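Input chain follows. Return structure tokens only.
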Amino acid sequence: EEYSGEREYAPEYVMIHFTSAVVPHPEDPYNMEYVRSIFEDYYVSIHYIIDRNGTVRCYIPEDRVAWHAGRGEWKGDPKYTNTMNRYSIGIEMVGMGSAEDMSIYMSAAAYEKLDDSLKGFTNEQYASLKLLVADLCDRYDIPADRDHIIGHEEYSPNKTDPGDLFEWDRILP
């Protein structure tokens, strides 16, 4: 309850994010203890996190509002301006985007030093995400399309996730 709120509205959207601990721990950016501490340190939350091997972890139950979307707007509709948390389920992919996506967090030189296997997302993550999104869409009657399965960057203009390396066609029909 400390990291969530009461849900008043059924979810209408699924929002995809990326997360890692690459800035404080470039030597081990996907250590789940480090990743989880970021949420605690910044007082944000997420419904689900999918780690590199495809394991899905639920951090905030769906019947609660997670604090993942922040400030933003969707399609000019005032209903969703700065309120998307109320209307969405948030999913974090443990991964990172392109050099451009990551430029708000790290220098290009630091990004280039990273092993290429750390960039983007794994086949196991896409498989798990596809199943999770299909299940959420089915249970909440959310259309499985790009108008309802959205990236954080589409809602919040100062965000870059899930980024250029995310392959939308791998999760949507």
